[in-house]
Amino acid sequence: MNKAVASFTAACAASMLAATANAAVELADVTVSQGTGADPSAVTVSYSLSNGGEPAYVTLDVLTNGVSVGFDHIKTARGDISQLDAHLVADDGAAKSIVWPMRKDWPDQLLPDATVRLQAWYTNAIPPMYLVVDLSGGTAAESFPYRYTSTAPDLASSTCRTTELWLRQCPAGSFTMGTTITDSNRNYVHPATLTNSFWCGVFEVTKAQYALVMGDAAASAAAVTVSDGNPDGVYPMNNMSATDLRGAGSSYYGWATDNVADGSFFGVLRAKTGLAFDLPTETQWEYACRAGSTGEFCDPAIPSTGSGLGDYAWYSSNANDHTRPVGTKAPNAWGLYDVHGNVYEACLDAFQDNGSRVATTNFVASNFLGGNKYNIVRGGCYNVNQVACACGTKVQRFTSNDTGDGSIGFRVWLTIGKWR
Questions:
Q1: Rg of the Cα atoms in the chain
Q2: pLDDT over threshold 60, residue 126
Q3: What angle do CA 291, 295, 299 make, to 5 degrees?
Q4: 145 vs 12, which has greater pLDDT?
Q5: What is the C-alpha separation between 412 and 32, in angstroms, rounded?
Q6: Is the pLDDT of residue 146 over 70?
Q7: Residues facing 254 on adjacent strands
Q8: Best exposed site among 79, 108, 217, 406 by fewest CB in 10 Å?
Q9: Cα separations (Å) of 152 from 192, 199, 280, 334?
Q10: Is 99 within 8 Å of 42 (Cβ atoms)?
Q11: Burial of 217 (0-12, 13-18, 19+ CB in 10 A)
């Protein structure tokens, strides 16, 4: 990509744009033009959709020299497009159109040999899409580019756990939340509904990823891990506080709101992507952990007590009392790793006893009862038993000054449709 020396000329760029279609749902008649209307830089993509009369997700990407320019550069595209929100494109026989005001997203840039790529996905299953944030620029970067891909992360390379942040799209839905296991930390059984789909981190945030967002000094506050031949950066980040993640003072008591401090982890990540990344609500966390499972664990065949969790989790039976590199156990049905064990994962909710909880929709406990200023952590960790790692077990352990607990980490989430 070359820096424009003079003003952007639509004719030059238009001759360099081509269109292709690659979809599970049938896309046809894909054309692209540039320079129509009041904005000479605007790119218009036209197409037709065929999906048996059913709506579909339709996404747009732009590639130059075969490489995506990143969705931070095309986020203002509007029309018959899904992008990061929950908008569905109707199969109603009408012509479809997407308009991308290129100069607004990417001023003073040319796109040599660029290709506009459309992709479409059925809605009766999770669209096979990931959101990938490029953190490689580190603290010096003005922005963190991001892209979509339908290909799962390659665990043979450490990139997906160090210099990139991978999130998986999870569909909205209803489920039975909680556990019947008799335990003081249990979440009582009740129906729960999430009306918005969301992106969920494929892995727990690692030390390497945290360092690229917050700096090496901040990441070095993590507890020292036992060396087992793996680079330190692929271990889960731990020992950070609620203040480190979202900010101090009133922001702490308002965790159920979108407020985060500018210098916090999520403040920096939002500023450099334009996306409202955050911790999950407790309901979101359990829904993603289960990935459709109605048992006590992500694999319903695992017994409530005893053993059998070792294929999915690092916990007291196999972790040797320390954290382990993320992504080294089997994932759940939605491709999410370490949903059981390794480190507890922080949630937005204040801890509350919900013994009388009834059916809830998009619930988040924002009030701290009885002077209790702890937030919920979920999933268990490397030094607790199988029961403590169950989908429905919750613990009150995370505070604004909790900087000395190596068992607590976190995962990044983004509710679809939420922009900063």
A1: 22
A2: no
A3: 55
A4: 145
A5: 35
A6: yes
A7: none
A8: 217
A9: 29, 14, 22, 11
A10: yes
A11: exposed
pLDDT score for 224: 46
Dihedral-angle region of residue 202 (phi above 0 means left; psi in -120 to 50 means alpha; beta otherwise): alpha
Domain spans in the chain, listed from the N-terminal domain onward:
10-121, 130-415
Is pLDDT of 73 > 70? no
Nearest C-alpha neighbor of 119 from the set 153, 91, 87, 148: 148
DSSP 205-249: PBHHHHHHHH-HHHHTTSPPPPPSSS-GGGSBP-S--HHHHH-ST
The hierarchical CATH code for the domain 10-121 is 2.60.40
Q: Higher model confidence: residue 194 or residue 305? A: 194
Cα(299)–Cα(313) distance, rounded to whole angstroms? 11
Q: Tokens 């479409």 correspond to what residue? A: 120
Q: Do 10-121 and 130-415 come out as alike in CATH topology? A: no
Topology, domain 130-415: paralog of FGE (formylglycine-generating enzyme) (3.90.1580)
Burial, 15: exposed, middle or buried (Cβ in 10 Å; 0-12, 13-18, 19+)?
exposed
- The alpha carbon torsion through 309, 311, 314, 315 (nearest 10 deg) reads 20
The DSSP output letter for 136 is T
Structure tokens, 286: 């359990």
Residue 20 makes CB contacts below 8 A (sequence gap 6+) with 30, 115, 116, 117, 118
The DSSP call for residue 83 is T
Q: How far apart are CA 301 and CA 295, in angstroms?
A: 7
Give dist(CA 27, CA 73) in Å, integer.
23
Residue pair 101/76 in contact by the 8 Å Cβ criterion: yes
Residues forming beta bridges with residue 166, ordered by sequence position: 132
Encoded tokens for 172: 């909205």
Instruction: Tell me whether strands 190-194 and 360-361 are parallel, antiparallel or unpaired.
Output: parallel
Check if the beta carbon of residue 181 is closer than 8 Å to that of residue 386. Answer: no
Amino acid identity, position 139: T
pLDDT, tens only, 250-304 = 444 444 557 788 899 999 999 998 888 999 988 999 999 999 999 999 999 998 8
Residues in Cβ contact with 15 at an 8 Å cutoff, skipping those fewer than 6 apart = none
